[in-house]
Design a protein that fits this description.
The protein is α/β, with parallel strands linked by helices and 261 residues long. The protein has 9 helices and 15 strands. Helix 5 runs parallel beside helix 6.
């Protein structure tokens, strides 16, 4: 219960940039004392900056730990994951980078018995949490890249990961991103994760980008690649016209899930 409230508070601060105690009370339906305690807790973890009478978001390049992103756009991510998992066929080698949406894709793959039957699909990932969740399914082939673990995202990055990816072939790379935009292409917050995602793309026959509507036309710090590397975008809302046009020009397909909640 408290974790969900903290997630909601972080999202509120992120959206507005700054909130007062009174605004938190109204938005979350909690007391002023609870609002102050929650803001204090987030400030202690250096997730927000506490101010006199409220809190301020950190810079746009700041990366929230993965556990604070889980509840954000949860319905959209689940719908996207279900659609993407249904596109896969037995025999494929699939790559998943780290993130909450790709984690949902991994779970959706695990729910498809035909994909998990007698090792009929191979999943390559640099995300420790995804590898852990899928490792309990003995019929899936799991390949984990090497590298140094990032505590914010549970992703392995660095030369060891890059070396592994340079030696394998991938049918479908399924990538979560922090932003996709007409101007900047695919972006993420951390440069090392951008490099690994680019290596996934280079090794793959097709690249499916999974991004909820909050990521559309929202460039972030580190560039992964331009839009020409995208085979398909799966999202939960209609894509803004400039981005839709740019994707169409490079031959990328757009799939919008039926879940519009």
């Amino acid at each position: 219960m408290r974790q969900q409230r903290l997630n909601q508070l972080l999202e509120l601060i992120s959206e507005r940039g700054h909130v007062s105690i009174a605004e938190v009370e109204t938005a979350l339906g909690i007391s002023a004392a609870t609002a102050r305690r929650d803001i204090g807790h987030l400030a202690e973890q250096r997730l927000v900056t506490r101010t006199h009478g409220g809190a301020t978001a950190l810079g746009s390049a700041y990366e929230l730990p993965l556990q604070y992103k889980i509840s954000r756009q949860a319905n959209a991510k689940l719908a996207i994951a279900t659609v993407v998992a249904d596109m896969l066929v037995p025999g494929e080698t699939v790559a998943l980078n780290g993130g909450t949406t790709t984690s949902e894709v991994a779970r959706a793959i695990g729910r498809r018995p035909d994909l998990a039957d007698d090792g009929s699909i191979t999943v390559v990932t640099n995300a420790l949490n995804i590898a852990y969740e899928l490792s309990i399914r003995p019929n899936l082939n799991i390949v984990v890249t090497g590298g140094a673990a990032r505590t914010q995202s549970y992703e392995l990055v660095g030369p060891l990961s890059e070396e592994v990816l340079s030696k394998i072939n991938i049918d479908t790379a399924i990538l979560g991103v922090d932003g996709i935009s007409t101007r900047a292409g695919l972006t993420t917050i951390h440069p090392a994760e951008a490099k690994i995602s680019a290596d996934f793309i280079a090794a793959a026959q097709r690249t499916i980008v999974v991004a909820d509507s909050t990521k559309l036309e929202h460039p972030t710090f580190a560039r992964i690649c331009d839009l020409s590397s995208v085979s398909m975008l799966v999202t939960d809302r209609p894509v803004p016209e400039p981005l839709a046009k740019a994707l169409a020009e490079v031959g990328a397909e757009i799939v919008v899930t039926s879940d519009q909640k």
